[in-house]
Amino acid sequence: MGTAMPVHDSPPLPPVAVTAATPSAAAPTGPGRRPRLYVLDGLRLLAALYVVAYHYTAFAEHDPHPWGRPVHEVFPVFNRFSSYGFLGVQLFFLISGFVICMTAWGRTPKDFLISRVTRLFPAYWFAIAATTVFVLLAGGHWLRYGRGIDQFLTNLTMLQDPLKVSDVDGVYWTLWCELVFYLLFLVVVRAGLSYQRVVSFCGIWLVAGVISTGSGDSIVRTLTMPGQAPYFAGGVAIYLMHRYGPDLLLAGLTGLCWLLSLHQLATQLPEVSGHVGHHLQFGYAAAFVTACYAVLIAAALGRLDWIRWRGLTTLGALTYPLYLLHEDIGWGVILHLHDTVPAWALVGGVTAFFLYAAWLVHRYVERPLARYLKRGLSKPRPAR
Asked: Buried b / exposed e across 46-74, counting CB within 10 Å, b at 16+?
């Protein structure tokens, strides 16, 4: 499957508010209220589109391929660029660490959990249903997994990964990583967010991930996430720069996350090279990851506050449903139309279709269902 991770396919970040938080009274050295970080919305969409490009124009592990011939023959030049699109997921994780820390500040554990449930599940449930219906109607041996009622129902819980049930769509593997991060960070939210506690959380998590590397214990590796933790923790550390200002400790923590990210990247590239059918250069991949860190740091320190186009908010909202819907349905459309539609026109048309579908899902599914869930989950409950 198309990803940089050992067992899964490739893919994004659930939509979250990206408005800068106001420092609490306990942080007198923190910055004043800053403008909304529109650049994060734009980065999320660019990351999602890069992942889409990776799946449509670089991922080669199909037999036969939806394009009817090797994908590098269909896109002989662009394929060399899009083959690194799996790195879009690393950018998603980095932004997720930043935004989750930002939006959790000042919230109760209950509020934090409700915000995560209402963000993750509405579009996800719709995507599962839409993908399943498409598969039943279109069929085809290009599908990587057999579908069944048990798989469908288990996927609704978003717990299919630990239950060893296949994802309805391969990109869903990232959602389990997000869930684990949320649950771990909930411990810090419960204790009360502060500079010291958040830094300690990141440091302990990173060290645990290093120690667990190579461990055969699935529970330990699930909690430490050595392949993903450096990106989540890096985003958290960069948010602390945004909130309190840069200092030597945060610079060192961010640098450690960056170095561990590069180490994990080096271990992942051989497998991803197999997914795309040619050797990937560590230097190019490392430059992309480094640029992701640099851009997020620049945003955190206010260097990109000049980006204030409000349309980025809408585009950023499309990221999650676009990600959830594009892969298997998109491959099915390509399979059935590649003989009659020119390749670039087909890729452009399919991508445009999913962007519009993502807007419809956001407007008519995500927002209404999120409001309903929030009202229901926010009602007071009996103490016992």
From this structure: ebbbbbbbbbbbbbbebeebbbeeebbeb
